[in-house]
């Protein structure tokens, strides 16, 4: 199959919608990362997403809508708290989990009785959903396990020959996937995956719990609320290590432990050519993380050392993705020097 890459326009949105209406799959831009979209109601179409990505069947997909009026048919209940959160944070990088209606096939929900729904703010994503007139199931448009795509070129690299069309909407502004939350009680939310809508932002509306799987490795065979959290994720080919040191201590440690196939992501720019500046601002780190991991692979890096990010705000999302990219390997420099 030949993969066409078209810049986003009204016409290309209509072309995407035609393919999607016939059960095809299309790479689409969103403000978080690029998505691999199909009609969320069409079991066969959704199965082809899993096939193209090599995604485990029990890892459910997020369903994307462009207007709140599209939510009720997909779910059995929307609580007052969910409504309040939708009013404040939609459209935006926030996904909520609801009991699902029969409109959503088991393929979309990974066999669960619930469905994850989000309303993206990206004008391109919204125009494509509008042109379709039906909700789109769309996981990140990468091969399962690899870093998520934040440009159309990243999607082409992973999906060339596997899908008919990619719509290029430029670089994703957020750069990490949406916050995923569920409702353990009427007055609280639990963050299953951190993202652009942060715990701090949500706590202005209600009590916020952070699922233990966000910052630690689920035990083998343990039941995890968000199935995606149990899989190896976001990983470049190189081995990633989070280095728990900052500034000069980080620089010195990297130089002492590097060879010519090592890349290091530092928060300040550094002279040694192994360093790539990742920024100090968590927002900037989120925006650049996946592109930097992919670049390191393109340069043939075997190891990537990353300066420990902050866990505040969207920093928690950066830390969560890095932990999985690093297979939970954190090097404590102080311990090593004792
Ligand atoms: P991706 O589409 O690749 O961004 O991943 C979607 C994330 O949302 C994965 O971590 C899924 O496990 C999670 N997710 C989707 N639907 C549900 C659901 N019904 N219950 C819990 N987690 C979900
Ligand atoms: Mg993904």
Order of helices and strands: EHEEHEHEHEHEHEEEHEEHEEHEHEH
Q: Within the CATH hierarchy, at the fold level, what is the topology of the largest domain?
A: DHBP synthase
Main sheet specs: 11 strands, mixed
Query: Structural class of the helix and strand makeup?
Result: alpha/beta
Number of H- or I-type helical stretches: 11
Briefly, what CATH class of the largest domain?
Alpha Beta
Order of strands side by side in the largest beta sheet? 1-8-2-3-7-4-6-5-9-10-11
Give the overall silhouette: globular
- What is the domain tally? 2
Name the CATH superfamily classification of the largest domain: DHBP synthase
Helix content: 25-40%
Total beta-strand segments:
16
Q: What is the rounded distance between the termini?
A: 57 Å
Question: Summarize this, please?
Answer:
The protein has 338 residues and is of the alpha/beta class. Helix content is 30%, strand content 20%.
Can you tell me about this structure?
This protein is an alpha/beta fold and 338 residues long. It has 2 domains: 211 residues, DHBP synthase (Alpha-Beta Complex); 99 residues, Rossmann fold (3-Layer(aba) Sandwich), CATH 3.40.50.11030. It is 30% helix and 20% strand. The chain contains 11 helices and 16 strands. α1 packs across α5. The longest helix is centred in the last third of the chain and has 17 residues. The radius of gyration is 20 Å and the shape is globular. The mean pLDDT is 95. The site of magnesium ion has 3 residues, from loops. Magnesium ion binds next to loops.
């Amino acid at each position: 199959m030949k993969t066409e890459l078209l810049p986003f326009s009204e016409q290309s949105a209509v072309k995407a919608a035609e393919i999607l209406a016939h059960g095809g799959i299309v790479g689409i831009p969103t403000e978080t990362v690029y998505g691999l979209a199909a009609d969320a109601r069409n079991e066969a179409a959704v199965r082809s997403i899993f096939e193209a990505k090599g995604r485990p069947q029990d890892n459910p997909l997020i369903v994307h809508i462009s207007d709140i009026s599209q939510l009720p048919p997909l779910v059995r209940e929307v609580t007052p708290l969910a409504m309040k959160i939708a009013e404040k944070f939609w459209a935006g990088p926030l996904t909520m989990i609801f009991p699902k209606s029969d409109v959503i096939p088991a393929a979309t929900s990974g066999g669960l009785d619930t469905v994850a729904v989000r309303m993206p703010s990206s004008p391109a994503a919204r125009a494509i959903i509008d042109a379709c007139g039906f909700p789109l199931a769309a996981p990140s448009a990468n091969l399962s396990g690899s870093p998520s795509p934040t440009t159309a070129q990243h999607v082409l690299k992973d999906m060339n020959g596997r899908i008919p069309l990619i719509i290029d909407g430029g670089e994703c502004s957020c750069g990490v996937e949406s916050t995923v939350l569920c409702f353990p009680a009427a007055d609280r939310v639990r963050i299953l995956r951190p993202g652009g809508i942060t715990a701090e932002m949500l706590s202005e509306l209600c009590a916020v719990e952070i699922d233990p799987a966000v910052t630690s490795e689920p035990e083998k065979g343990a039941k995890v609320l968000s199935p995606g959290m149990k899989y190896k994720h976001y990983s470049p080919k190189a081995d990633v290590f989070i280095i728990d040191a900052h500034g000069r201590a980080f620089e010195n440690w990297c130089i002492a432990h590097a060879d010519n196939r090592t890349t290091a992501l530092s928060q300040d720019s550094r002279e040694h050519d192994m360093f790539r500046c990742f920024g100090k601002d968590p927002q900037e780190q989120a925006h650049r993380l996946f592109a930097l991991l992919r670049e390191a692979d393109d340069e043939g890096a075997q190891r990537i050392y990353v300066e420990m990010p902050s866990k505040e705000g969207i920093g928690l999302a950066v830390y969560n993705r890095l932990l999985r990219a690093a297979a939970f390997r954190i090097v404590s420099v102080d311990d090593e020097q004792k």
